[in-house]
Inverse folding.
């Protein structure tokens, strides 16, 4: 087993053909701030460059997978230049994960919300526990999804259902997420690791080079579409950050009350 000590906010270890990467900001429910995104991107690039690895497993430390983007750190962004830099990092993160020449497996327990959910959607196979809480909840603070979620949800659900899910901002538990097609397995609470191990064994017993060639074909077909979605999300998110509804959504979030949106 090889353990990487290069990162402060993610854990990476490799054993044989399997790499395991764990988000490691448990006190913030693995909220994605600039530091975590930088470490995660570095670790993903390390795995991508390793010819021995054919399977990547992505999970979260602590009580949940990821609560999404770190709102406190986002509030500290002082202008469009800083915002643009963060969005470019998100785009690189999602594109690296989506195009990873490995079978990417995400295991979700607890919360997977916002950008955290986007990262999960960029993987090839998603397992969650039945009491997990999955949400594309940007609408609650007057924003649009980012992390390529417009494209990723369209791929899983189709345009009409993706649009409804984004507009509703509903929280889905594991079984309902499975029924909707948002995840590939829903397991009893505490059984996530069992499901991950079973799927790893299934992949290791399969002709993974053929699996990954199929993935390469689909990535080639869709990469430009995903990049276009990321570019549009970056532009649209900046515009939404200027709206009165977003400011009201943030105030309501901080004050722990229901927002009163005006459509402005």
């Amino acid at each position: 087993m090889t353990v990487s000590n290069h990162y402060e906010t993610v854990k990476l270890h490799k054993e044989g053909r399997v790499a395991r990467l764990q988000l490691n900001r448990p006190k913030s429910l693995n909220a994605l701030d600039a530091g975590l995104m930088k470490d995660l991107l570095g670790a993903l690039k390390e795995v991508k460059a390793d010819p021995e690895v054919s399977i990547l497993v992505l999970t979260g430390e602590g009580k949940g997978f990821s609560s999404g983007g770190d709102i406190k750190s986002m509030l500290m962004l002082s202008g469009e230049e800083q915002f643009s830099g963060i969005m470019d990092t998100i785009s690189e993160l999602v594109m690296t994960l989506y195009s990873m020449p490995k079978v990417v497996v995400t295991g979700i327990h607890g919360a997977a919300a916002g950008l955290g959910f986007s990262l999960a959607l960029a993987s090839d196979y998603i397992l969650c526990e039945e009491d997990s809480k999955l949400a594309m909840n940007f609408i609650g603070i007057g924003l649009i999804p980012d992390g390529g979620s417009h494209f990723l949800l369209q791929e899983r659900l189709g345009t009409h259902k993706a649009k409804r899910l984004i507009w509703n901002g509903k929280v889905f538990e594991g079984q309902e997420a499975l029924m909707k097609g948002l995840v590939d397995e829903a397991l009893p609470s505490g059984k996530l690791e069992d499901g991950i191990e079973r799927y790893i064994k299934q992949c290791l017993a399969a002709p993974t080079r053929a699996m990954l060639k199929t993935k390469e074909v689909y990535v080639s077909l869709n990469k430009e579409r995903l990049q276009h979605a990321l570019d549009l999300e970056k532009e649209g998110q900046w515009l939404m950050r200027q709206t009165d509804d977003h400011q009201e959504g943030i105030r309501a979030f901080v004050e722990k009350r229901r927002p009163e949106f005006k459509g402005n």
Summary: The chain is about 50% helix and 15% strand.
